[in-house]
């Protein structure tokens, strides 16, 4: 497909290097196969920050992720950026004593929460960060304790009762008729916990602030010391609705670090699982979006289709969400001809149902009346916040890792990614609906050319201590990145998963502006970011 | 196809509960309806609380509302406030950041009340264990009356668990 030729293969690199030379910054490339497809560049500590950020900003890079590792006497800071579907990792070493680095946030708002997360968990300070408030840290550990430092025990030193986070300094507003609405952390529905603080006038939302971190359970810390199987199991529980994607990303990173090639059939099965996960979630959410405006018919229909889909998962793979189906070196479940046939007819049936339902949704005036123009996110904002997945594509930012930076097996199956410029809830629903069709197409093609070899698991060999790898893939929510470093004896030294939600959550604060408070559930559902995936 | 056409074509999909269960289950089912009628005036009300789950358990609890299970037909419904609830359905390990909120929710639930720990995490801390950030299993924070293991428990095992609770 023509879009894959978008890939520039780092054509922009000389330009970046030249512009940095003018500022006396040199990028030292470190060859590291585990980090492919990204290229790794080291930058001197004193050059991390304004000049570097300014140049990459000028060249229209997208901010992807930032994470920290605790070395012996220094911290390693790694930022991942993307341009034309090529990824670079910029890395600097921050001496432990100072533990301070310039911030990317003034240039890339998307870096905001990741830097604050690093401050709360590693004690790295970003003095020029525009928002000094804590983020992941509430009250479970003190301001002087840094759970992700190696010398911090996994058990910590908890109080018998962790006080609630009651004094978070929310942004306020004064004026006639402005009032605050606090919501959460315990929400009214069966959903994850978090806090939303609305400032409203009458019914209109002036401002929304998210306060998350409530379900922080130390995932990065408990990953340390696990073996590859253990990490895959944990990764599959970073966000239960994206269990396949997280497990796959973690396995991809570990396999890259260890230099392991996954059998072709297993690669296909991983994609089959991932596309099934995509469809299940979109089905549930489309029903949910409609339900939030009182269109119960669609909720019944789509939750019915989702249930059938999950029952098939159970019948064929033994788990309704496909948890633990992706394992290091391959997959844990194989399929036989009978399942291939059954899956094919199920795909046809679902397609037929979706064909029937689409005009019903499209022609329903009262539904469209609520969805069109609600929760509008402009392309500029989607870009500024580095949104990914359907959030980005519904606002005209056309990016899909499967198509633009394809990994096996998608490199052999050009993927259709639908884009819309409308930016509202209706556009997000439309993009998701089309995502299902695209996933159905993919599933049909994957099944038709499923490699016949029976192996589904490559033998594991222990990577050298210090080996690192990344996994970048398109989860149902969008681009997901994961970094893994091995320590001694096949044990994990560092695991950092960047769920797409980290990038998509902030845009909810913006797209709700000028909507009415009662439309918040609708807007929120159309985003459906994961709390667990962002809180870690 | 029209909206009404689709409704008629879909028909009623609600499954008889004995469709894939045994005689014991039917007995508990009948018992459930009786107990809900007698002890809860026909309506057992649940407040779901997630103090730290991965969201897998929530998805299965939500599935109880789909047409196949339609849990409301047993007189079981979900409330937005713990003040309206008989039962707290708690998922996940209890994140320390949610410890106070879980306690407040528990205290806001009027007596008599029951707590059901749903999913391996809630039952025994699951994959996450007890750490600087996690209190571990639900019973570390509030008393638990019944556990429903599974990662996540299927809607069917959730229903079996609720039948057991109401039948106690
Ligand atoms: S039991 Fe499993 S599905 Fe439920 S919260 Fe824990 S990890 Fe998630």
Automatic annotation (TrEMBL), chain B:
Signal peptide: none annotated. Its EC number is 1.6.5.11. It comes from the Bacteria. The keyword Glycosyltransferase does not apply. Its cofactor is [4Fe-4S] cluster. The keyword Amino-acid biosynthesis does not apply. Coiled coil: none annotated. Keywords: 4Fe-4S, Iron, Iron-sulfur, Metal-binding, Oxidoreductase. Pfam families: Oxidored_q6 (PF01058). SUPFAM superfamilies: HydA/Nqo6-like. It is an enzyme of class 1 (oxidoreductase). Residues 54-165 form the NADH:ubiquinone oxidoreductase-like 20kDa subunit domain. One of its GO terms (molecular function) is metal ion binding. InterPro entries: Complex_I_20kDa-like, NADH_UbQ_OxRdtase-like_20kDa. Belongs to the complex I 20 kDa subunit family. This is NADH-quinone oxidoreductase subunit NuoB. The gene is nuoB.
């Amino acid at each position: 497909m023509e879009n894959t030729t978008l890939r520039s293969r780092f054509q922009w690199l000389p330009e970046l290097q030249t512009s940095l030379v003018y500022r006396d910054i040199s990028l030292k490339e470190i060859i590291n196969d585990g980090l492919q497809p990204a290229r790794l560049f080291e930058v001197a500590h004193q050059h991390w920050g304004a000049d570097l950020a300014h140049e990459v900003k000028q060249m229209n890079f997208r901010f992807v992720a930032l994470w920290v590792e605790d070395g012996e006497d220094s911290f390693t800071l790694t930022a991942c950026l993307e341009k034309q579907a090529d990824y670079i990792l910029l890395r600097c070493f921050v001496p432990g004593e100072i533990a301070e680095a310039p911030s990317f946030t003034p240039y890339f708002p998307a870096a905001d929460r990741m830097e604050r997360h690093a401050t709360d968990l590693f004690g790295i300070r970003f003095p020029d960060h525009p928002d000094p408030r804590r983020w992941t840290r509430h009250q479970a550990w003190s301001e002087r304790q840094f759970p992700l430092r190696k010398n911090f025990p996994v058990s910590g030193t908890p109080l018998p009762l962790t006080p609630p986070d009651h004094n978070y300094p929310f942004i306020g507003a004064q004026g006639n008729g402005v009032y605050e609405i606090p919501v959460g952390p315990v929400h009214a529905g069966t959903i994850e916990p978090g806090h939303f603080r609305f400032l409203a006038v009458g019914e209109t939302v002036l401002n929304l602030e998210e306060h998350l971190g409530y379900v922080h359970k130390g995932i990065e810390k408990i990953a340390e010391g696990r073996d590859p199987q253990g990490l895959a199991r944990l990764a599959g529980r970073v966000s239960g609705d994206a269990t396949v994607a997280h497990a796959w990303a973690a396995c991809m990173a570990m396999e890259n670090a260890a230099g392991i090639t996954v059998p072709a059939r297993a690669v296909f099965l991983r994609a089959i699982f991932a596309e099934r996960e995509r469809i299940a979630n979109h089905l549930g959410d489309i029903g949910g979006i409609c339900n939030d405006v009182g269109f119960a018919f669609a909720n019944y229909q789509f939750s019915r289709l989702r249930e059938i889909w999950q029952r098939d998962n159970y019948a064929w793979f033994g788990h309704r969400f496909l948890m633990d189906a992706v394992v290091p070196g391959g997959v844990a479940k194989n399929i036989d001809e009978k399942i291939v046939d059954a899956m094919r007819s199920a795909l046809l049936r679902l397609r037929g149902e979706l064909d029937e339902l689409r005009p019903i949704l499209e022609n329903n005036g009262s539904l469209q009346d609520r969805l069109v123009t609600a929760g509008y996110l402009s392309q500029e904002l989607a870009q500024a916040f580095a949104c990914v997945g359907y959030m980005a594509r519904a606002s005209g930012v056309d990016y899909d890792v499967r198509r633009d930076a394809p990994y096996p097996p998608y490199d052999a199956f050009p993927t259709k990614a639908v884009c819309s410029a409308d930016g509202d809830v209706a556009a997000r629903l439309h993009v998701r609906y089309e995502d299902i069709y695209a996933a159905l197409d993919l599933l049909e093609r994957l099944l038709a050319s499923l490699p016949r070899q029976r192996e589904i698991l490559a033998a594991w060999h222990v990577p050298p201590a210090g080996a690192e790898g990344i996994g970048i893939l398109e989860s149902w929510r969008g681009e997901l990145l994961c970094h893994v470093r091995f320590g001694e004896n096949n044990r994990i030294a560092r695991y950092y998963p960047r769920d797409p939600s980290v990038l998509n959550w902030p845009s909810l604060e913006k797209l709700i502006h000028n909507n009415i408070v009662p439309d918040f559930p609708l807007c929120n559902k159309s985003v459906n970011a994961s709390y667990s995936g962002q809180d870690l | 196809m029209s909206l009404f056409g689709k409704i008629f074509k879909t028909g009623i999909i609600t499954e008889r509960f004995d469709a894939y269960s045994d005689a014991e289950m039917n007995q508990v089912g009948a018992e459930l309806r009786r107990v809900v009628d007698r002890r809860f005036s026909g309506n057992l009300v649940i407040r779901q609380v997630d103090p730290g789950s991965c969201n897998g358990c929530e998805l299965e609890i939500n599935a109880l509302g789909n047409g196949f299970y339609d849990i409301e037909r047993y007189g079981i419904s979900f409330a937005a406030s713990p003040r309206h609830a008989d039962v707290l359905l708690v998922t996940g390990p209890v994140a320390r950041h949610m410890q106070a909120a879980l306690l407040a929710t528990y205290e806001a639930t009027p007596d008599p009340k029951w707590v059901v720990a749903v999913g391996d995490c809630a039952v025994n801390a699951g994959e996450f264990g007890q750490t600087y950030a996690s209190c571990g299993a639900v019973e570390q924070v509030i008393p638990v009356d019944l556990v429903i293991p599974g990662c996540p428990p299927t809607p069917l095992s959730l229903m079996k668990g609720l039948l057991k609770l109401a039948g106690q």
